[in-house]
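Please decode residue identities from the backbone states below.
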């Protein structure tokens, strides 16, 4: 259980460090991302960004899995 928590923590730190570079590529502002701005609040739901990241991670994990032979 502790290894899992450490892995999740390291992954979150890595995502946090890489997020500024991802924003420069346009992730987070893609067509299809829902943004609602009002006077005193805003709502952001990155639908398209989540789909793009999911496809990328699925492809990367499939390639890694085949390379490791599992």
């Amino acid at each position: 259980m502790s290894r899992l928590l450490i892995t999740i923590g390291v992954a979150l730190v890595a995502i946090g460090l890489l997020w500024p570079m991802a924003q420069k590529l346009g992730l987070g502002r893609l067509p299809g991302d829902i943004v609602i701005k009002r006077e005193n609040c805003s709502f952001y739901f990155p639908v398209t960004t989540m789909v793009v990241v999911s496809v990328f991670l699925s492809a990367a994990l499939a390639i890694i899995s085949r390379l490791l032979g599992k």
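Observation: Strands lie at 34-37, 42-45.
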